[in-house]
Amino acid sequence: MAEQGEEVILLDFWASMFGMRVRIALAEKGIRYEYREQDLRNKSQLLLDSNPVHKKIPVLIHNGKPICESSIIVEYIDEVWNNNIKAPLFPSDCYGKARARFWADFVDKKFYLCGRKLYTTKGEEHEAARSEFIECLKLLEGELGDKPYFGGESLGFLDISFIPFYSWFQAYETYGNFNFEQECPKLFTWAKRCIRENESVSKTLPEMPKVFEFVQHLRKRFGLDD
Q1: List of long-range contacts for 33-38, beta carbons under 8 Å, 24+ apart
Q2: Is 42 helix (H, G, I), strand (E, B) or coil?
Q3: N or C of the chain: less Cβ packing under 10 Å?
């Protein structure tokens, strides 16, 4: 829990899977914070000043100091509030930490972009993205294996990095024309477990239909739907 006198502010946007992972980490650690929703088409001066390089959410402002990029923020949260009764978010061994960081980077740089192409492209590019997206899912399922969570027995860094994407799966399945449970049953069971066993997850993730409606709005804006 944040100490008395600490100021913790999160600049975020409700549908952002990257922002969700920060909110889950804060909830896991029991940190009280002020949430400030951002209009990404009319960015606040505080956001522009706090993240002048990328001008993106999420940004965590801790006692006036901004921390940017969701994975870095989650790692910061884990290190700063390390006296919490909850277990650390990272594995204790160096190899385990490196592996978790590798797969989180894979989610950010590969999985996210393939998923985005499912609802923003057409034709051959869309078909290629669909195949690549399912391949990414299967790679992640292979990394999970038969473990309850990616790091073992409890929710950890990689779980927190990936589970927010579950809120987008109605959109992914609809525009990618596939069934998540059929393609990757172990990964599907993992997602349900994350929600069922972790209040930090269940209370953070928005409902799929709400995200799907947001994606439909995006597609209209991109001129992909009437």
Answers
A1: 33/2, 33/8, 33/9, 33/60, 34/7, 34/8, 34/9, 34/10, 35/10, 36/9, 36/10, 36/11, 36/12, 37/12, 37/13, 38/11, 38/12, 38/13
A2: coil
A3: C
Query: Residues 60-88: pLDDT tens digits?
Result: 999 999 999 999 999 999 999 987 667 79
Interval 156-166 mean pLDDT: 98
Structural domain boundaries of the chain? 8-80, 94-221
Residues 132 and 121: their CA atoms lie apart, in Å, by 14
Domain 8-80 annotated CATH 3.40.30.10: yes
pTM of the model: 0.95
Query: CATH fold of 94-221, please?
Result: Glutathione S-transferase Yfyf (Class Pi); Chain A, domain 2 (1.20.1050)
Helix/strand/coil for 50: helix
